[in-house]
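User: Here's a structure from my thesis project, written as structure tokens. My advisor, Dr. K., wants to see whether a designed sequence matches the one we expressed. Can you design one independently, without my sequence as a hint?
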């Protein structure tokens, strides 16, 4: 067995004094203080998403402590006390300027956990995570540290029940109620939407990313779907996790042995199959970067292949909120995430030979779990899917030369006749202006408006906030009036957003991307037949040049930052303003706008490639 990380390798009394004292306080033997260290980490934040994390961390820590000792059958490690990283509540902050810190929180988690892992020299780690940004930052840090590690997502919240109707509701229901004229109704929904503890319960970003992390191999599949308050999370999973970690250490199986090109591809394919959040397109490049792949869209999967898979190969298999009916706990009741994985394995759409944190291949893990087949109500089959195409589509065109714009096709409720939307631009330089217009004059929004929200990207906002508040209000407005209003932004969306919404448009407005040059009344076309997002007026070189020149002068006159950009008035926001990479590279904070990669690895393209497959009735081969 090779242990690649350790501290306290000598017996210097100055370095030993506190570890002897800590061993006594933690109830472990001082004889183990010079052994490699193991520990548990977790996430704490200001919402019920994080309230269940501490109990799981303490339960796992207790099991780990019970297993550590000097007897032959015990684990001979130095135990460190649990550590926590801080997190932001997306649900509470949506629609406010504080939401700028949400994606930045992913970077803060990465930094804080990196400090703990590296400075403590942890040779084995169990991480308990909640919400959606901290898990990605946690996984990135674990990949950079690269010693045996395993992740447990805390689990989803149960759906709320409206006592007046008996129907299931959730946080998206509450955001959609924001435009309701009756304040008592709004308060009624708010009081019942989020009962108990746990992260968002639908197929929003949290569950998209926990599924992604599990399919990528870093979390046991059967631990994803159970609710936060499920007794298994305190009574069964802690022992299993300690067993898995001990085995990973014995095998010297590290995160970068698990998160490889094919496991990343598997994870993104499953995200398509569950109609997952657009945020997966931001998080996948960051996870790949930490795993050693400098550019996800070159080294792991091309945008063209992604679109082919979504359009012709991978359908949506789940009837889940926000585009459907059911929650994550319903998926758990019909067999869990492993049901979806089994179906895709059996159809040859993902690679079952990749290793996982259980010490097994993905296929072996699914087989050992005695996985059920799709029930046909909550989880569907590939041959008879819930929706015929995958849930996401990348767009290029003259508004998205980075090929970064993302449409959540699974959530579209109308407006794509013949796979094409054509509308007139209505521009807002910032989210607050749109929210004010929706509050003050919702009737001013017309059928086939293309609402443009710009200067909210990684650099411009700074921080790239998500737009659940305005998208939820627009969705409600469209349903009430029977119209279609589209929204396009250089910011991002909540996994709970539905409607014809297009995010991550890049280059962003703050960097002089074409989205900055759109004027009210311009014709905007989203064409899914060609996967292009275009502005008709900007096709004219003279018009483009004139508008660009105006933008450049406004920016120069304002000291190099366009006046519509947000104020970077803290050190974190200043870091984001000056070192955020584009959305196509994950939107993270990296020095000199270069994506830093630890121990870069070659992208071996000889592995599993499912894109030569098509479903019955489709005509195109990639």
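Assistant: Designed independently from the structure alone:
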């Amino acid at each position: 067995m090779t242990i690649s990380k350790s501290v306290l390798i000598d017996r210097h009394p100055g370095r030993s004094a506190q570890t002897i004292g800590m061993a006594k306080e933690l109830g472990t033997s001082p004889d183990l203080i010079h052994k490699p260290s193991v520990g548990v980490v977790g996430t704490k934040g200001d919402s019920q998403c994080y309230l269940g994390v501490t109990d799981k961390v303490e339960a796992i820590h207790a099991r780990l402590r019970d297993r550590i000792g000097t007897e032959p059958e015990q684990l001979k490690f130095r135990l460190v006390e649990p550590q926590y990283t801080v997190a932001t509540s997306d649900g509470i902050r949506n629609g406010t300027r504080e939401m700028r810190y949400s994606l930045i929180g992913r970077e803060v988690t990465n930094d804080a956990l990196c400090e703990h892992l590296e400075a403590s020299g942890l040779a084995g780690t169990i991480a308990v995570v909640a919400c959606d940004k901290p898990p990605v930052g946690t996984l990135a840090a674990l990949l950079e540290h690269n010693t045996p590690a395993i992740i447990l997502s805390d689990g989803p919240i149960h759906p709320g029940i409206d006592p007046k109707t008996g129907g299931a509701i959730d946080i998206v229901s509450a955001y959609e109620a924001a435009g309701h004229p009756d304040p008592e109704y709004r308060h009624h929904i708010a009081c019942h939407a989020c009962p108990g503890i746990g992260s968002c319960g639908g197929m929003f970003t949290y569950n998209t990313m926990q599924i992604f992390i599990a399919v990528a191999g870093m979390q046991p599949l059967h631990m994803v779907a159970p609710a936060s308050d499920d007794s298994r999370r305190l009574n069964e999973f802690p022992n299993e996790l300690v067993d898995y970690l001990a085995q990973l250490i014995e095998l010297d199986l590290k995160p970068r042995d698990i998160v490889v090109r094919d496991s990343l591809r598997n994870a993104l394919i499953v995200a398509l199959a569950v109609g997952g959040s657009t945020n997966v397109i931001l998080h996948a490049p960051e996870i790949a970067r930490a795993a050693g792949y400098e550019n996800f869209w070159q080294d792991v999967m091309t945008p063209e292949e992604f679109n082919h898979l979504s359009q012709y190969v991978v359908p949506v298999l789940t009837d889940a909120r926000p585009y459907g009916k059911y929650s994550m706990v319903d998926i758990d009741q019909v067999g869990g995430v492993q049901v979806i994985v089994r179906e895709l394995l059996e159809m040859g759409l993902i690679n079952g030979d990749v290793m996982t944190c259980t010490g097994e291949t993905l296929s072996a893990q699914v087989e050992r779990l005695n996985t059920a087949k799709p029930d046909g109500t909550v989880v569907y089959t590939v041959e008879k899917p819930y929706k015929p195409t995958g849930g996401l589509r990348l767009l290029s065109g003259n508004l998205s030369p980075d090929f970064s714009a993302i449409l959540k096709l699974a959530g579209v409720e109308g407006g794509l006749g013949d796979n094409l939307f054509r509308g007139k631009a209505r521009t807002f330089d910032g989210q607050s202006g749109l929210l004010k217009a929706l509050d003050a004059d919702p009737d001013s929004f017309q059928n086939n408006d293309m609402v443009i929200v710009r200067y909210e990207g990684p650099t411009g906002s700074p921080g790239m906030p998500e737009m659940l508040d305005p998208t939820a209000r627009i969705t409600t407005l469209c349903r009430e009036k029977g119209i279609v209003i589209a929204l396009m932004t250089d910011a991002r969306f909540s996994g709970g957003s539905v409607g014809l919404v297009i995010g991550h448009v890049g280059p962003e407005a703050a960097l002089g991307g074409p989205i900055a040059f759109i004027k009210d009344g311009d014709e905007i076309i989203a064409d899914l037949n060609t996967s292009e997002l275009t502005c008709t007026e900007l096709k004219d070189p003279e018009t483009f040049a004139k508008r660009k020149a105006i933008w450049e002068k406004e920016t120069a006159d304002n000291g190099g930052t366009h006046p519509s950009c947000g104020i970077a008035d803290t050190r974190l926001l200043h870091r984001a303003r000056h070192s955020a990479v584009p959305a196509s590279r994950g939107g993270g904070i990296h020095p000199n706008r270069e994506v830093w990669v630890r121990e870069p690895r070659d992208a071996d393209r000889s592995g599993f490639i499912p894109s030569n497959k098509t479903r019955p009735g489709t005509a195109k081969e990639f």
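When you compare it with your expressed construct, this may help: The first strand starts at residue 37 and ends at 45.
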